[in-house]
Amino acid sequence: MKIFPALSLMLFAAPLQAHPHIFINTGLSILVDEQNRLTHVKVTWEYDELYSLLVTEDMEVDSDYDGMSTPEDVAKLTGFDAHWIDGYNGDLVGTLGDAALELSGPTAPTAELVDGKIITTHMRSVIGTPQITEPVIFKPYDGTYYTAYDVTLPVTLEGGSGCGVTVDTPDLDAALAMTKAELSQMPVDMDMEAAGLGDIGERFASEIQVTCSAL
What stretch or stretches form a coiled coil here (predicted)? Predict the structure, then answer.
């Protein structure tokens, strides 16, 4: 498989950074069956215009530069960000109560180019299809904060009985101020992970909560 420079974000561990280089608007569609078991999560990523431009140039997509995709472009783009290395969590962390959720790798990828932005989707199965007896929390984020995820696209809940979903956005100004203060105390040559900031992206993450009433 040919690896394009702009695609390395999804394929390899990004270096630890103190600020994001790629910006993604994201949304989730959470699928629950009739017994309130969590079955799948569909993830939507809308890449920023600069990163989209890098990808389309690397992949020789949008040759007329109109910012829209042709069927041929769609065929090239589909799945470009769905080739993950082992251990990559897809920048999505889920918990049920105190227990971590195990999610499959991406399936059923789609892609399109709209107004100069690449928009992709992929589906992830929830291993074990656990019943939602406690709140489910999803947090889309990159621990290194190389990529910033902003939950501005729809978050929906499909199926279930007596279930609801809410989105809690972080106080970005407070998180940024805290991060700047911590970084200012670090030696220039110190690794962020060694300083205990290897999962710094979580403090900038929106929290998506799913609850269901007892059946």
Answer: none
